[in-house]
């Protein structure tokens, strides 16, 4: 830490902040790349602006004003004029620093996505880029046609980072050594580490920046592929065996219906996986009503009968676990297969008995919830874990299950989280899709609407309720939040819809703060038609099915991920009646509107997950985040040729034992996942 302080000529406070950002060495410092770039070669005039397209303009401040608004806030507005006397405005809220620094008649560069409102161009909260920098460009020999923009972090401004990188960029040769093998640099025409670092921070042109980004995408994917290959090789192994197809056929004769071809293919792939001699890790993706539950039942039956092993079925909620156990009981009890339900509300005496039975192998299959993922649940011989609605479980919860028993793992979801899709591009687990639905399915009518259009739906809702149909209204919050004033709460929506609908229509409110018995009572009344409209938070996302519910209204829908929207929408899919899903939004953002329009266009959960991956990235792959910023760039995950190339080279490096010859690469790989024996 002291070396970094001396090298950067900074304070202990700044060094500690850098540590919070995972910057502890000189190498970490150089590997903190810009979040964006400003192309100063394409400065636009105000006349050339395009709405919502990020642009850089050069203008002079000809006037500034401060307007007092509600809640003691101050709107600071700068009137700007370019060289052609065109006018635009830059607006800030409560920014005293900008007010002090920017003076009338200053010429500045600003960057952001302009909005054309009330016949004038407005830059809301733009980035202010000074026309000249604080250091002498001639002394650094840097070309500033493309300017790097770094993220602010706590008290450290991006401009400070930019300044320090510019001062230290010539130390790259002393700090970093090339760790990619020479044959890879030549084979794929990659920049060396020195040229890559200088052009990722201060590119002379767009082409050199693209080449530097490609080199770093290559090295990140290569390291990940090496780690993934190694983990795959470490999986528990035994002698491959032959599947017992007759066992499956015998069970299928007991079913009162015929499986679809997609279900049969999924079962075959999973059974084949189990017999390869390696631990299975498979994602079963399905659409609602496509029959994934019966697939999991058949796989569980096969594990119990063929191998005499235990199975754990993990559900995200108690209600869903109770719904599943009824399906298991119907088929398993006549076959003398012992199953049990273990949840957070199971009485202590009964819970201890069940845990003892699990430990002593008296229970073949246990259905449980995340509430009891505890160290004191000990299986005698657990061979398979089935995770239903896998996007409802945290990464570390799924990892704990895998690390405790290292069983086969079958994860099921209607919409895979983007992180799962990213992992499936590698060798963490394989995908199986049940893409064949029974005939007669009607599509759900999905529409993005404004708040005003929503209020016009009242008569439509009344007509549908008179036809013995029911309505869900979902909000993102339980109660009003001072921090997010424009977001509807469940309480507010309950009061609003009560005023809009006739008094004879029964409306009820449900949210996560209710006790379990209260939730059960609300859902029971809704299912029995004692309530016609249910206002709720997302607790109904994985609730029991209500046959009469055909309308789903989701308020502030821009605040939900596509995964959650897709799950909520399918709560109202029906065979006989046409179903409706209305996505209500107050947001004026084009990005939010465009994202919601995908829900109108696509009903395929897997396609929506791919879109989600592109829009919000996949979370950190080598760690446990599911959002924010990922360590594998978006463009790298979309380049299938790059993925295939790094996959091939990773196998080549491991099979030819090249890691022991490359200490730099070995150290990097070891540090990523603390793999101790990979170079031996």
Low-confidence stretches: 131-141, 481-486, 617-630, 675-680
- Helix share of residues? 40-55%
CATH level-two architecture of the domain at 444-602: 3-Layer(aba) Sandwich
Dominant shape: globular
Topology:
Elements: H1 2-8, H2 12-20, H3 26-30, E1 36-39, E2 55-68, E3 74-81, E4 87-93, H4 96-101, E5 107-112, E6 115-117, E7 120-124, E8 127-129, H5 137-140, E9 146-149, H6 158-168, H7 172-175, H8 182-187, H9 193-201, H10 206-234, H11 245-252, H12 261-274, E10 281-286, H13 292-307, E11 310-315, H14 318-332, E12 339-342, H15 348-359, E13 365-369, E14 382-388, H16 395-405, E15 408-413, H17 418-424, E16 430-434, E17 444-450, H18 451-455, H19 458-466, E18 470-474, H20 490-500, E19 507-510, H21 516-527, E20 533-536, E21 549-554, H22 562-569, E22 579-585, H23 590-601, H24 605-616, H25 634-638, H26 640-655, H27 663-673
Parallel strand pairs: 4-7, 10-15, 10-16, 11-13, 11-14, 12-13, 14-15, 17-22, 18-20, 18-21, 19-20, 21-22
Antiparallel strand pairs: 1-9, 2-3, 2-5, 3-4, 5-8, 6-7
Helix pairs in contact: 9-10, 10-26, 10-27, 11-13, 12-13, 13-14, 17-24
């Amino acid at each position: 830490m002291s070396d970094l302080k001396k090298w950067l000529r900074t304070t202990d406070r700044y060094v500690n902040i850098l540590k919070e950002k995972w910057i502890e060495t000189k190498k970490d410092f150089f590997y903190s790349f810009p979040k964006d770039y400003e192309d100063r070669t394409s400065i636009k005039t105000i006349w050339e602006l395009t709405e919502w397209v990020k642009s850089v303009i050069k203008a002079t401040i000809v006037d500034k004003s401060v307007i007092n608004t509600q809640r003691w806030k101050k709107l600071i507005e700068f009137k700007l004029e370019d060289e052609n006397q065109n006018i635009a405005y830059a607006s800030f809220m409560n920014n005293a620093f900008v007010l002090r620094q920017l003076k009338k008649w200053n010429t500045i560069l600003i960057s952001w996505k302009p909005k054309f409102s009330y016949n004038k161009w407005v830059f809301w909260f733009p980035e202010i880029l000074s026309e000249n920098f604080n250091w002498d460009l001639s002394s650094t020999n840097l070309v500033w046609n493309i300017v790097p923009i770094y993220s602010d972090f706590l008290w450290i401004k991006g401009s400070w980072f930019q300044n320090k990188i510019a001062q230290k960029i010539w130390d790259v040769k002393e700090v970093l050594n090339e760790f990619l093998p020479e044959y890879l640099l030549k084979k794929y025409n990659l920049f060396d580490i020195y040229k890559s670092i200088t052009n990722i921070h201060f590119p002379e042109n767009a082409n050199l920046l693209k080449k530097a980004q490609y080199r770093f995408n290559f090295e990140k994917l290569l390291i990940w592929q090496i780690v993934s290959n190694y983990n795959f090789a470490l999986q528990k192994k035994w002698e491959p065996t032959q599947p017992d197809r007759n066992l499956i056929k015998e069970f299928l004769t007991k079913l009162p219906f015929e499986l679809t071809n997609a279900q049969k293919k999924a079962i075959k792939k999973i059974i084949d996986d189990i017999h390869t001699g390696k631990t299975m890790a498979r994602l079963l993706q399905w659409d609602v009503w496509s029959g994934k539950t019966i697939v999991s039942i058949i796989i569980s039956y096969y594990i119990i009968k063929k191998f005499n092993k235990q199975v754990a079925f993990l559900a995200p909620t108690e209600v869903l676990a109770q719904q599943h156990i009824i399906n298991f009981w119907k088929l398993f009890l006549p076959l003398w297969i012992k199953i049990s339900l273990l949840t957070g509300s199971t009485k202590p005496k009964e819970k201890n008995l069940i845990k003892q039975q699990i430990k002593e192998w008296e229970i073949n299959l246990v259905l449980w919830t995340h509430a009891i993922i505890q160290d004191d649940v000990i299986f005698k011989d657990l061979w398979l874990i089935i995770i239903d609605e896998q996007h409802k479980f945290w990464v570390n919860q799924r990892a704990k299950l895998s690390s405790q028993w290292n069983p086969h793992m079958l994860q099921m979801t209607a919409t895979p989280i983007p992180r799962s899709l990213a992992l499936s591009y590698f060798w963490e687990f394989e995908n199986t899709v049940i893409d064949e639905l029974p005939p007669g399915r009607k599509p759900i009518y999905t529409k993005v609407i404004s708040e005003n259009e929503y209020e016009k739906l009242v008569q439509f809702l009344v007509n549908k309720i008179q036809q013995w149909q029911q309505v869900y209204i979902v909000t993102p919050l339980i109660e009003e939040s001072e921090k997010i004033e424009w977001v509807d709460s469940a309480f507010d929506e309950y009061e609003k819809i009560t005023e809009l609908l006739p008094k004879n229509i029964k409306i009820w409110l449900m949210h996560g703060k209710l006790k379990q018995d209260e939730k059960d009572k609300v859902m029971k009344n809704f299912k029995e038609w004692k309530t016609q409209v249910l206002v709720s938070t997302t607790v109904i996302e994985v609730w029991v099915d209500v046959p009469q519910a055909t309308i789903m209204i989701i308020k502030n829908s821009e605040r939900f991920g596509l995964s959650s929207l897709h799950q909520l929408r399918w709560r109202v899919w029906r065979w006989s009646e046409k179903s409706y899903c209305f996505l209500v939004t107050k947001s004026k953002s084009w990005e939010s509107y465009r994202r919601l329009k995908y829900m109108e266009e696509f009903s395929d959960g897997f396609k929506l997950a791919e879109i989600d991956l592109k829009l919000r990235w996949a979370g950190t792959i080598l760690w446990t985040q599911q959002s924010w910023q990922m360590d594998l760039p978006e463009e790298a995950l979309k380049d299938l040729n790059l993925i295939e190339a790094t996959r091939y080279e990773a196998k080549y490096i491991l099979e030819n034992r090249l890691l022991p010859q490359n200490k730099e690469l070995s150290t990097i790989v070891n540090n990523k996942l603390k793999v101790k024996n990979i170079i031996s």
